[in-house]
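Support reply, case 0932

Customer input (verbatim):
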Amino acid sequence: MPEDLVASFRTARDLCSVGFEDVALLICGRGFENVVRRVLETWDVQIATKSGSTAVAEATLNDVIETMKRLRWKDDSSKVFSGQSVALMHWARQVRNGEAHPGEDKMAADERTSAKLTAEVSARVWGLLKRNSDREIESRAETKN
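Our regenerated output:
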């Protein structure tokens, strides 16, 4: 993973080591969002809307994940991300949102564990990109819900 993406996860690790698990989880959520956006940007994916295409940077994280859910490989039309992977990405998004809005019901009771899982989901998403660097996706634009 590129250094600029790893930086958030290192910061989160350091925050956990001094007892700031809640802030670490928020930083991990930011790192996760940066990873999934970078993956779509690397593949040059645009999110199609009724009024035209939207750049990945301008789309909501939910729309980014839903776009990832619909991506297929060009060579065999299989899904790029499994249903389980998409569910984990949505979980990471919900945990990040819960941590960003104090007072709302939390999706996770243990911030340290949630931060570790969010980092692991991010690493898996990036790993899929790197393991398949020679493959192309079927479509460069996906329809927004």
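We compared this against your earlier run and they match. Two observations from our side: The radius of gyration is 15 Å. Helices lie at 3-17, 21-42, 61-70, 83-100, 111-131. Please reopen the case if you see a mismatch on your end.
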